[in-house]
Amino acid sequence: MIKILIADDHQLIREGLKKILKEELDMNVAGEAGNAEDIFKMVRDSDVDIVLLDISMPGRSGLEVLKELKHSHPKLPVLMLSMHPEDRFAVRSLKAGASGYITKESAGEELVTAIRKVVSGGKYISMFLAEKLAFGLEADTGRPPHEALSDREFQVMTMISTGRKMTEIAEELSLSIRTVNTYRARILEKMQMKSNAELIHYAIQHGLVD
After folding, report:
1. Which residues contact residue 40 at a Cβ distance below 8 angstroms, ignoring those fewer than 6 apart?
2. 21, 30, 111, 191: which could join 107 in a potential S-S bond, CB 3.0 to 4.6 Å?
3. Do residues 72 and 42 lie in contact, with contact meaning Cβ atoms separated by under 8 Å?
């Protein structure tokens, strides 16, 4: 029996994932978590075989949680779930130790297959991402400026680039406005830009926002 921990702060998403998984006789949802603290407690106290982890958790991002999970439980496979297209966060997730990455939009078709593959020790990525990696678009030389951003800075940059206000970003990430403004300042410095308008233009140009 594959014991699964679903980590997502939206109850409707968790219910939808459970509905998909309940059809599988060899899979069991062993627990649910809506924040980082609950994730670490359940992993520590429960016997789970895989964590389905939302990349946009409140407070600490899913990537931060992923890195800590891989440090404390290096053999525990983590399958990242995201509302964001693969070209934004998938490579960062895999580099941080994830065993796979699927979008919530494709979960209905791919979730069960992805779980089986990563629990057996494999990696799960889509054909799109496999081609991107095969062509070496993540080479260290000639990297675009946004690759120099930390995971949290990249997350804030994409949110700014969709036109969200600092107050909205702070609320969604459970951070203070001062902290978000600090991230913004670092982003502008690393990207060598001076305004949100420049960030938005860059993000659109590089396909980082819809």
Report:
1. 68, 69, 72
2. 111
3. no
